[in-house]
Batch of 3 targets.
Target 1
Amino acid sequence: MSDKIILGYWNTPGKAQPSRYLLELSGVKYEEVRYSYPAAEWFGRDKYALGLPFPNLPYLLDGEVKITESETIFDYLIQRLNKVELLGQGNDKYIVDNLKNLFSDIGTRMYIYSQKEGEEQTKFLSEQILPKIRDIHKFLGQKEYLLGYFTAADLYFLCFAKGFKNTLPDSYNEFAATFNPLIQRLENIPQIAKYISEGRHP
């Protein structure tokens, strides 16, 4: 393997953000390639020049390892960086995985929501997004972390909650009293706090 991991994605948080947090937590040396629209560097240069078997964003290069898809990258990094404890203890690992998939699903629904307008958009939010967020809100309750201890699910939560807060602040207010303390707790982790303070968070 190379001595430097390369992570490529759009210049937004999006699907690569949990992996960015994981890399920061590990302290490993890595490099980012961030693409901005219209992304001539990606579509016209890198997409088919990097040797990726299934070209897509995000991608990760680590010596002979060349992979795409956000979940594949995150799972690879968990093993590569010796952070398997973040997958949860015992049967909790299934809840961690459940939450990771749930946050990804909500992210997809948020995108669908953004493509709708008027009453159709309002109905979609009410019926397809907020009920799932209420389930998360109930599950978190007064715990310090989603599982009661720090796991990968909390990194996914941080990405979800910040996006939700920025995109739908009025709807977020319903959950703020429960979500804000966890956001603050996660952003106060020294490695993540440093990452944010240095202006490297997209």
Note: The two ends are 27 Å apart (CA to CA).
Target 2
Amino acid sequence: KERLHDLLRPLAGDLSEVVEEAQAGATAVAVGLKHTYTGDTIVGHEDLVARGLGNATMEGVHVPPPVFALSITPVEATDDELEEALSILVRDDPSLVVGVDPDTEEPILRGMGELHLEVAIHRLQHDLGIEVATGRAHVAYRETIIQSEGEATMTSLNFDKTIGGKRLAAGLCGTLLSLDTESEDDDGSERWMMQTPEVVILPQVADELTADQLEALRDATEAALNQGQSFPRIGCMLTISEVMQEGPDVTTPGALRAAAAAFVAKAANQYQTSVLEPIMKVEVNLISEDHVGAVLSDLSSNRRAQIRSVSQDTSGRPRLVCEAPLVMLLGYASAVRSITKGHGSFSMEYSHHAIDTADSQ
């Protein structure tokens, strides 16, 4: 629940006035909200209770997965101050994601593109007063396994080691499957979405494990399945159909964790691995026809773009829609301004992942 302190109607400049209500379509500022994020819908709880909908929830705004990452380091601020400022950014913009680089332990800010992160860093430094140094930008590559039809086979592994004088043993059987791709492009190439790998432990297997064993097996399998050879893995499902035990003192949660990691590696190594790159849907808007040819030539020749349409907006101005690898769009804001002599703009959003045929990572 939220308690609203004031409702303000913004006026010119920094002025505002307190109002009792806001009609549909009006712009208002709600003061005092502590748990509300961008995209949330606020409703009167008493109204819902009266209608028998006291526990109702509404679907939030769809937030596409981040495809661009930037490491950040505070110049003078403490880690706690940086963490608090980043939490404010994420609260205002749910498409931003904060994480930690597993190798350097530096904070990582992920977003929808180069310009998106530039705006976020500007807000961090100028609005929130946290000066940061930024590292090299990273594109969100992924990888997946490639299977021919009917190629999936059962994998089995027996783990048996003595560690610190104590014997640990566990056996696992299961099948790793490549999930169906969403669709195919006009040229026949497949599309992958940012689909987290799935782990399925059959009910009869889960029933034979203690709660601690089941948790250890699931957590370790999910962690190993998510971590590919070079990039996070997507688009696959692992079904565990059998667990062989030798008693609680031997088949411990630790034994199952170790067995799960080795089992996933063995299952994945049976198949070809492909690197996937993020593909963006790009819309370029021009003022006149003068620069259409130059923009199309640059997109096709220099940015590996697939042109989807060339049309006009409601004002009769040219609009170009294409799909291009994100890595080829780095610096495109400056390029499109240069090509069109400042008379063009563009926007882009995540479309899908596709096999990286250029080894650009």
Note: The CA atoms of residues 263 and 318 lie 54 Å apart.
Target 3
Amino acid sequence: MEIQQLRCLIAVAEHGSFTKAAAAVHLTQPSLSHAVAKLESEFRVKLFYRSARGVTLTPAGKLLTKPARQALSALENIESTVASLHGVTAGAIRIVTSRTFATPIAEVISAFRERYPEVRLRINSPQSESDIYASISSGEYDIAFARIDRTPPDFATQILGVETLAALLPPGNEPYGNHTELTWAQVSRLPLILPPAGNQARMAIDRVFAAHGVSVNAAVENEDYASTLDMVRAGVGACLTPGTISRIPAGVRMKAIVPAQRTRIGLVHRPGQLAPAVVAFNALAVEHFRELRTTRATSER
């Protein structure tokens, strides 16, 4: 068994696709498939179910991913410790982020890669906020981009900015004319595509609507944000999105919701000393969001 095989196992588990996993670990798809097949042969178990809809873990695969993650985490901790002897120019940073965060996060990562090309980045976007905090608490990841208004008390946070919610409407759907803003009551009457009941994001959405004296009209429940955007474009219904979203599907229109629902977003990590590369990443993120706020304030004058 080799470390690269474990990286392939985790990549396929996280991306649900051999093609996407191969791109994530910088291998060709045949090379990644061979690594997984070799691992299955060594363990004498089937790790993935393969179907037209994608790739999912078998019970054996689910059982093995946890120790595989722990092994990779231990290795990366060793690499980070060694890297700390050499400053920021080496090592790895493990970043976890919400699936709905948009442009600013990608820009921070791009700027960091340009400034510190020798530092490896591993990025994951779990389904829920609780998974984000669990991955930081366990040490599996170093730092998170998260909504920090409800951050548990045993984490260190650094506020980056404030996010507002907006509505995305399907092409040709103008139930309220050409208004650029909608009230919460108006949004509540739209057929919405929302996360499933019980999902943390859904519970937060339900609380917001309840605070404004209305309830949601959940026409479709869907946990995957990317496919939700596809359904909005196809005319299935409207959805809620962070106002910072960078890629609005063709024909889809964004409407601000008033009064604005503001949520603080920021960086989250475990208390204590951070590796130099993580400290540098934090500083760059704070700098980038400060410049972003300045640019927006100037454009709104």
Note: The chain has three domains: 3-61, 64-161+264-300, 162-262.
